[in-house]
Amino acid sequence: MATEHDEYMGSLKAQLAKLFEVSLKVTVPNELDVEPLVAACNGKFGDYQCNNAMGLWSKIKGKGAPFRGPPAVGEAIKNNLPTSEMIESCSVAGPGFVNVVLSKNWMAKVSIQKMLIEGIDTWAPLPPVKTAVVDFSSPNIAKEMHVGHLRSTIIGDTLARMLEFSKVKVLRRNHVGDWGTQFGMLIEFLFEKFPNFEDATETAIGDLQVSEYCLIPLNLNLKAKFTKHR
After folding, report:
1. Which ranges of 28-127 does DSSP label H, i.e. alpha helix?
2. Which position among 146, 167, 223, 228 bears the catalytic label?
3. CATH architecture of 4-105
4. Which residues, listed in sequence order, are joined to residue 99 by a DSSP beta bridge?
5. Which residues form the Arginyl tRNA synthetase N-terminal domain (predicted)?
6. Tens of pLDDT, residues 73-121
7. Is the dihedral of CA 24, 25, 31, 35 positive or negative?
């Protein structure tokens, strides 16, 4: 049984989808399991948009439906929407797109006020999944780190936090990149530079990174060499 909390739990898109679901059942009662196609739209037209009209028209034309095209289907969807305080206005544009403008008063008095009083958790969306895997960062450990690695790390961590906020169990995975080729070239370099294995053991790893054996020119030179002999 739905509760008052359930009514406001989840995203605005989900709440609008419930309203359009009711409208679609009235508009095309013979079409079962029509999923509302609700998405954010261009701010010039509204806040959200229902895009079912064109798809429905392709299914119902020629079956005696009382419509003459997608725009008429869109008008019917708009007219059959249940009354809701969250909707300020609706309009139909183009081939039946139903544009919705949300009520600012509803947003302020109901949604934001509820979040302030009961906590932001009351507004967390409820994804249909319980567990998610986020594979991010994943640098190649045989190459230098650069600012590009931060992009994946930041985006991945943000997605993981958003999912966790929505009560989804998140498994963070950092897949170490394909480092075999680089280390193979490094081993070849050591064989050439230090034919005597014992001499190589006296060279610190740091020397391969900051001295005459710097990995940047080393990597470029060896890459050119190995490419040439392929």
Report:
1. 53-60, 70-79, 104-106, 113-118
2. 146
3. 2-Layer Sandwich (3.30)
4. 49, 91
5. 14-102
6. 999 999 999 999 999 999 999 899 999 999 998 888 877 777 788 777 7
7. positive
Question: Per-residue pLDDT tens for 46-71?
Answer: 999 999 999 898 888 877 778 888 99
Catalytic residue among 149, 169, 228, 229: 149
All CATH 3.30.1360.70 domain ranges of the chain, comma separated, are 4-105
| C-alpha 177, offset from chain centre | 23
> Known catalytic residue: 146?
yes
CB 57 within 8 A of CB 70: yes
Beta carbons of 27 and 77 less than 8 angstroms apart: yes
Amino acid at 106: W
Q: Which of 97, 107, 102 is nearest to 49 (CA)?
A: 97
Residues 6+ away with beta carbon under 8 Å from 48: 12, 13, 16, 38, 39, 40, 41, 99, 100, 102
Using alpha carbons only, what angle is made at residue 32 by residues 69 and 68, rounded to the nearest 5 degrees? 10
Tracing tokens 């075999």 back to the chain, one arrives at 180
Segment 33-46 shows an average pLDDT of 90
Can you read off the two tokens belonging to residue 11? 């995203």
Active site includes 104?
Answer: no
Residue from 18, 25, 114, 143 carrying the catalytic annotation: 143
Say what the pLDDT of residue 61 is: 82
Grouping H, G, I as helix, E, B as strand and the rest as coil, residue 126 is coil
